[in-house]
Structures are given as structure tokens and as C-alpha cells.
Design goal:
48% helix, 0% strand, 63 residues, mainly alpha
Length: 63
């Protein structure tokens, strides 16, 4: 799976303007940093999980 290209700050500003929200330039910069950071974290998520490596956790009410 190829990783999505992170939008540039200018592309992000254009998309933010299309939402109709009243965002300051500082808001847009913070949101852009967060979005780019989230994309970077998503790249680290494995595509295949070893489900059998850990038994499922079962919680039961006290009997």
C-alpha cells in the first residue's frame, strides 16, 4: 500500500478555506502539522497483524 502524499501548507489552506470555517492562519498551521503527523503515524501501522500472538482478553463479572 503506498503512503498518501501529505498536502503542502498552501494546499491545506485552500482546502480549509473551502470548509467555510473561520480559521486563523495559526489554526491552519496547527491543523496542517497535526494532519501531516497523523499521516506519518499511520505509515507505521502494520498492514498484517499477528492475531494469534496474543490471546484475547476476556473480562467477566465476578460470580
Amino acid at each position: 500500500m503506498s503512503s498518501p502524499m501529505a498536502p503542502t501548507l498552501e494546499e491545506f489552506r485552500v482546502r480549509a478555506a473551502q470548509t467555510g470555517l473561520t480559521l486563523t492562519p495559526e489554526d491552519i498551521e496547527h491543523l496542517h502539522k497535526g494532519y501531516v503527523g497523523l499521516l506519518a503515524l499511520m505509515e507505521r501501522i502494520p498492514t498484517h497483524w499477528a492475531w494469534a500472538a496474543e490471546p484475547p482478553q476476556i473480562f467477566r463479572a465476578a460470580e
